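Q&A FORM
Asked by: J.P.
Topic: structure of Inosine/uridine-preferring nucleoside hydrolase domain-containing protein

PROVIDED:
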Amino acid sequence: SASIASEFNFGTDPESAYIVLHEVTCPIVIVSWELCVDYLYPWEMVHKCINTNTPKANFLQFITKASIEVQKSSEQPGYRSCDAFAMAVAIDSSVVLDKVDIYASVELNGTLTRGMLVPDWRNKLQKSPNVTIVTKTDTQKSLGLWMNMVHV
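REPLIED BY: S.T.
REPLY: Here is the structure written out as tokens.
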């Protein structure tokens, strides 16, 4: 998370995020930070995956080493990989178990909330949905895609 109210990508460049949400006409699917916090890969499976001894597993081990060390040092009960969840959703939509179509924007001016995604949960603005926010995923299926990746 980039700040107390924004995740990394939106917080780094809120104006670009705003343009994407308001001008892009293709479907936009959001895998939120909150979703990634709630759905973790079991450590046992992560170690099995990265220790497979294939070129892809070796590369995965290299690029995840620092994040694994940080997450383990905080005694996190599993591995959080927002990128893996986002790619799983993009590759196989059946990974998504629940979602909501909603209108959302990005806060550009807030002192504490600049870069925050602001979904209109109560439809106060009465605007057509412009994003789909994933609210529940099949962690086992997502993990299966991650595991299969190192064997292909």
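FOLLOW-UP: Residues 8-40+81-149 form one domain.
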